[in-house]
Design goal:
This protein is of the alpha+beta class. The chain has a single domain, classed as Ubiquitin-like (UB roll). It has 3 helices and 5 strands. It is globular. 30% of the residues are buried.
């Protein structure tokens, strides 16, 4: 089980857990996290699952690949140095305790 704390667009913290081969976006959608629209369903083509990864976790979530980076560049007004698309972060045991803030869009 991987536990993740989301801070939604209203500043409300919600700790949820999931297991299996889920993306962070799928975990958020399954638990009704406000602000994760995921319009493209995880295809990395919309940026409606943008989150800001807590700086302490950036090394463990990894860097965006070229496709994700291009999507983040298109929303640079709300993206920052620790921004990732939740659909591109796979839950692993190494991410147990992850904290992310859902971006205002």
């Amino acid at each position: 089980m991987v536990r993740v704390t989301f801070v939604d667009v209203h500043g409300v913290e919600q700790a949820v857990a999931g297991e299996g081969d889920l993306s962070l976006m799928e975990l958020a959608k399954a638990n009704g996290i406000d602000g994760i629209a995921a319009d493209c369903g995880g295809a990395c083509s919309c940026a409606t699952c943008l989150v800001h990864v807590d700086p302490a976790w950036v090394d463990r979530t990894g860097a965006p690949d070229d496709v994700e980076y291009a999507m983040l560049d298109m929303v640079s007004d709300v993206a920052g140095d620790t921004s990732r698309l939740a659909c591109q972060i796979r839950l692993t045991p190494a991410l147990d305790g992850l904290r992310v803030v859902v971006a205002q869009q």
